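Wed. Picked up where I left off yesterday with Leucine-rich repeat protein. The coffee machine is broken again, so keeping this brief.
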Amino acid sequence: MRVQEKKWKFGIAAMLCLLLGIFCMGSALPANAQELLESALPESAQKNSLQKGGMTYAVSGGTLTVQGSGELADVASALEETGEGSAEEITAVIVEDGITSIGSKAFTGFENLSSIQLPDSLTSIKEFAFWECQSLKSVTVPDSVRYLGIGVFQECTSLESAVIGSGVTKLPIQLFRSCRSLKSVMFRGQVEEIGEQCFCYCTSLGSFTVPDSVLNVGKNAFFGCQSLTLTMPDALEANGDGSYQQRGGILVEGSRLYSEAGTMLNLVNQEREKQGLPALSMDAELLEEAMERAAELAIDFSHVRPDGTNFSTVSAKVKTENIAAGNSSTQEIYSDWISSAGHRANILDTEVKSIGIGCFAQGETRYWVQLFSDEAAERTGSGLDGKAKVRIRARAGAYPMSLEKDTWILEPRKSAELVVLLKNKGNPLLTAKISPETFWWSSSNEEAVRVENGKITAAGSGKATVTAALKDGGSEKLKASVTVNTKVTKIRLEDKTIRLALGETYRLKPEVRPKDAYDPSLSYESSKPSVVSVNRKGLLRAKKKGTARITIESRDGGARVQVKVIVGDYPSSIRLSGVPRKMAVKDKVRLQAAVLPQGTKYTGVRWSSSDRTIAAVNKNGVVTAKKPGKATITCQARFGATAKKSVTITVVPEAPAYRATAGKRELTLKIKPVKGAVQYTVYLSTKPDRGFKKAEVTKERTCTIDGLRKGKTYYVKVRAAGKAGRRLLAGEFGSVKKVKVK
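Structure written out below (tokens, as returned):
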């Protein structure tokens, strides 16, 4: 059969255009000319590095080394910024320790990448991270990696071998799709799921043994593997759509009580002796099968097994079966059996020669099974009591489950166990606990709630939905709502005492700690509302002279604080004068403050700056410009909370000093460095006082402007520009220089 494959590829434009314009009308080169020339050197001569997004990229001889922390993403773009080529030139990659994730499509299209070294700090490799790395020969996924995304190594057509670390339990969809050279895959851990099309079109894969740990194989996982000899575990059954599933997805934990089975055997044989019948031997095989059947009764109290077959399928030796369940003693269970005609007939059957007795306990409930055989025991058996996990082969969807508790409120760093319950199908009065290992567990918000094997841990404030999905591929999904209630532990205030003028309003601005408290809301209460009232938003209103205390309390009860408010003849406002629109670096100016109303005896003020590195202010209101940027200067009355005034001052670079020298049809400027300047703009005119036009923008201290008219007189002026965030702040012009070109 021929199969036509549809390939998905990214369109990758890999053309590098080098545009270098050099006008030989003098000896000057553009500022970036040297960089462009250096990028044309052969690889053996190159060694460059770039910092981007917290990562350091170093390229040498075709090998890319990446250092940093967090997620590594968009490597191709980072390479382009080094000015040393493109993804196609990289043949080897070394990712150093500290990086925790390879981002989606991080190395997609690195067509000549033949080797990759991954660190032990790595925990995830995301979707299509190495898609179409067509020269990659082998790969080892570290044991630290717990997550692989869709198509991580898809269409790595030269990939011959892969080692999957012990942390990976799920192979995602299309992991190795169209890896046509793949011959060997080794698993260091317990893989439980193989996703759809995982090995699709791996045409060189000669043999593959699906590990016994695998519970589910997705559709077409090995489609198009023309040379493949595939070995599946006996526990996996075909679903008829190209997928396989382990019927036995329900894991039950409990205790196997061999001692009680022995006690029951003695009671049976005592009764048989009374009836003149030979004693039954405990058949070793039937003993273990009876223990398994007893565990099956925990989810379905019936002679029909959970997989839909009759009890007799447990062993070819079995003739009849007795079952029981409850919290009764061994003697009481035996008495119930021997008092029932059907059960008594099985116990006293004259043809029966051997027996297997199972007793499986979960909590106070015990599940009992007697398997009778008309064959003599080939080998007698016994055992020691102990805990056991029994995987039960059950029909998907036949046994609905629920969480014992599906709504949780946790305090920070606290943990809890989610318990899954199954109501017994054969006896609704019985309920079994299902092992958390039956499910895949996930959290919708891992910053708030982490989950591992059913154990939830409060990681940070917030909400999350925790989902449990059956590992065997069934549709059953259980959900729990978890809220992490991080309480407020402290309330901070700017001042413990606030003074207000009569009739003024003032909004309190408390800060709660920690900042991620789940409920940061606060309540406010005044001890004397007739003096100072306060609303639910913390707005104070001074009603009459006097003193009141405002109590601020977190609604979660975690913190409480008080502030003293005094109402009197205090200043109500401040007027500032002498405020400049701009200041140049090194400039100083004194701001004048008038405290209102006039005649108040409380005239003291405090000065502050939002950023002292840009503009500092002293106690006398003298502002000193430090570096380009914007800063807010605030004047606050020492008495009178509402008497406050703020102004924003823009600091620009100072006017530059420079020297202009005439040359042959050119002029050269040498600029004295200006503090905080990121570039200089040169303007030219043929008139001393007007008509100036931008001639050059440069980051260099030396600038040559050519193409000028011979013998012509030019006037030149320069100003510097600093940077505030993404904005450029242009400074004042330096003095105009007169130059006559030669």
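Quick read: The chain has six domains: 33-246, 250-392, 401-484, 490-568, 573-652, 658-740.
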